[in-house]
Amino acid sequence: MTKSLSKVQKKISKKGVNISSLHENSRNSQRLRRASARDDKLARVSAARAKVNQVHLRRVAYFQNAAKAATGLFDLGQIQQLIQRSIPLSAFYLPLLISYRYLERDDEEMARLEDDRRPGRPRSSREDLLKQRMAMDEREYDGGFWMPDMMETTNLKILREWNGEWTQLGTLKYLRIARSGTVHDSSFPPKGQS
Q1: Is the pLDDT of residue 191 over 80?
Q2: Confidence at residue 93, expressed as pLDDT on a 0 to 100 scale
Q3: Which of 189, 163, 154, 192 is nearest to 174 (CA)?
Q4: I need a surface site. Which of 7, 19, 33, 51 has the fewest CB within 10 A?
Q5: Cα separation of the two ends of the chain
Q6: What's the CA gap between 162 and 57, in Å, rounded?
Q7: Is the dihedral of CA 65, 129, 49, 174 positive or negative?
Q8: What is the pLDDT of residue 2?
Q9: Percent with pLDDT over 70 in the chain
Q10: How far is it, in rounded angstroms, from Cα 125 to Cα 14?
Q11: What is residue 112's three-state secondary structure?
Q12: What is the mean pLDDT of residues 169-177?
């Protein structure tokens, strides 16, 4: 049985029926409504999934840029310098031209929003959203920050060659690195504290 709207329209028109002159409750018009609703639902689900996936894509893209700019493998201290705020960047990162660490990515926008707000006024919704995201990232880093494994040669090579597509992320190996320095293997996509 055909399911997509275009296929249903084609099948109905092959019968010699003009689609615009169908009776409101005929079988063919009901098939068209069901197919249209199915296509709309698939589009909504696909858009929602793409929005959720953007978080992971941006994170992996950040670490890919760092991996492309550096030569050789990363050790735990260097990875923590890429993530954390309080650790000063070593000479290892000066030629990388990394403009921010991962947890600092929203600091400039947050400062701009705070400066734009008049005294005594409540925070904007964007400012609240950024504050929540920053707090969530800090909590994640305390428990274990999910990221691609940059301490293994083959994984680092795959990361450098990644073309930005969701489907290729399954080939990478992932880690969870905590602020305390503990490292655990993780899965893709991340599920809780995997």
Answers
A1: no
A2: 47
A3: 189
A4: 51
A5: 41
A6: 11
A7: positive
A8: 61
A9: 89
A10: 52
A11: helix
A12: 90
Q: Which residues, other chains included, contact 49 with Cβ-Cβ below 8 Å and sequence gap of 6+?
A: none
Q: Which two tokens stand for residue 156?
A: 């680092």
Residue 138 binned pLDDT confidence (cut-offs 50, 70, 90): confident
At residue 148, the 3 state secondary structure works out as strand
Strand, coil or helix: what is 171?
Answer: helix
Strands 145-148 and 183-186: unpaired
Q: Using H for helix, E for strand and C for coil, what is the string for 51-106?
A: HHHHHHHHHHHHHHHHHHHCCCCCCHHHHHHHHCCCCCCCCCCHHHCCCCCHHHCC
Distance between CA atoms of residues 179 and 80, nearest Å: 8
DSSP state of 121: P
Residues in the chain: 194
CA distance 12 to 26: 12
What does the angle CA 149 – CA 169 – CA 163 come to, to the nearest 5 degrees?
A: 105
Dihedral of CA atoms 98, 101, 104, 108 in degrees, nearest 10, equals 0
